[in-house]
Amino acid sequence: MAKILMIVAQSGFRDEELLVPREVLERAGHDVKVASITRAKAKGVKGATITPDMAVYEANPEFFDCVVVVGGPGSPTLADDKDVTGLLIGAAGKGRIIGGICLGPMALAKAGVLAGKNATVFPDRKAISLLRETAAYYKAEPVVIDGNVVTADGPQSAGRFGAELVSMLQKKR
Predict the structure, then answer these.
(1) Which residue of 24, 27, 41, 153 is most buried, as measured by CB atoms within 10 A?
(2) Is the pTM of this model over 0.90?
(3) d(Cα 25, Cα 37) in Å, to the nearest integer?
(4) pLDDT of residue 19
(5) In this structure, which long-range contacts are made by residues 39-44, counting pairs with CB atoms below 8 Å and at least 24 apart in sequence?
(6) What domains are there in the chain, each with its CATH number?
(7) Do 12 and 75 touch, CB atoms closer than 8 A?
């Protein structure tokens, strides 16, 4: 099945925004890897601790069918990381499915992936402003799909977000 890379902040990712979509994707038979800025343990805001499979700079967009940026209060740091934005640009350029949940779409916006697309993000003033500044069309909806990009507004939408990723991956096959 498909290979998915989920990117989390080293500190402050939202646990259920990683764990719920990952479970949905794995149950559908997909291979999910997790990356962060380094290979050091990453900590979620609700206590989850994970050891990333790789650092973002080690990830090759050729290898993954889908790249997802997980949200949480630490995720805006991912939007400012050149390795993260470079990976997203590379994956989008290859026509891969790109996802972002909660504040994760901020990284997609900074990478230019959302330009000219409908998207959602956690309803935070700075996050919404960033989407608009980068030519995205903000929609106050739980999950928004536009082309190869799927965005979701937060942890309450994690299950639906994962299901939409599975559906998009099935259509690509």
Answers:
(1) 153
(2) yes
(3) 22
(4) 98
(5) 40/10, 42/8, 42/9, 42/10, 42/11, 42/13, 43/10, 43/11, 43/12, 43/13, 44/8, 44/12, 44/13, 44/14, 44/15, 44/18, 44/72
(6) 3-172 (3.40.50.880)
(7) yes
